[in-house]
Amino acid sequence: MKKLANKTAIITGAASGMGAQHGIRFIEEGAKVVFTDTNKEKGEQVVKKLGKNALFIPHDVSNPKDWKKVVDMTEEKFGPVSILINNAGVAIPNGGTLTLENTEFEGYKKIIEINQFGTLFGMQAVLPSLRKAGGGSIINVSSVGGLLGMFGHYAYNASKFAIRGMTKTAAIELGEENIRVNSVHPGMIETSMIKASIEKNPEIWKDQLKGIPLHRMGKPEEVSSLMVFLASDESSYCTGAEFIIDGGKTCEDK
After folding, report:
1. FRET label pair with 22: which of 33, 165, 182, 228, CA 20 to 30 Å apart?
2. Catalytic residue (choose from 108, 154, 156, 237)
3. What CATH number did the domain enclosing 161 receive?
4. 108 tagged catalytic
5. Ranges under pLDDT 70 in the chain
6. Is residue 182 part of a domain?
């Protein structure tokens, strides 16, 4: 039997990158999956090839009304939600890094609204549906930036640390309802966004790789395997935990 048979998942930020890969893998494992993203064109392209168990819904995770729409449409199409992956997130909208002096409120606010508020709104929105399903799994995507400081990423670090804290609090509250809540902390993963950055700054990325004990970036498929475990009944005794997938990056203080 497939690991996610008879389960319904919502995955945010799923029009590309890791979110899209997670959705594809979940369908292979028997789940029905709702892909959400602000990028309607890319999202529809992804689900077009995936058949009847995939649905795309345009979605701004920082808008609670959008969340209600997503949950309502998911239940109408596939039934109660048993899995939520809060994957949508941004780092710095224009790229690069910002010092303390150069961090402006509007940019900071935007990152907090998407990363932190979006995660909170998502957990709140799916809770009634998870109860209908008799329990389930919430997976909040944080980052190694939710464990360590990162130069020039004040808002990103703040949001990812917040996700880690909210995850633990929700796990305490929801455990007796058979709702598990865990956070995932990826390091350098080989997405199209990272590849584009490497092409622009190859020397900087060479130095980054030296600090990873496995001396390579991770692949989205490797993160998806962890997501399947956390979404499935195989992880039935895991809640309130941080799952780090970073090639060993956080082992060393450098």
Report:
1. 165
2. 156
3. 3.40.50.720
4. no
5. 93-97, 193, 197, 204, 253-254
6. yes
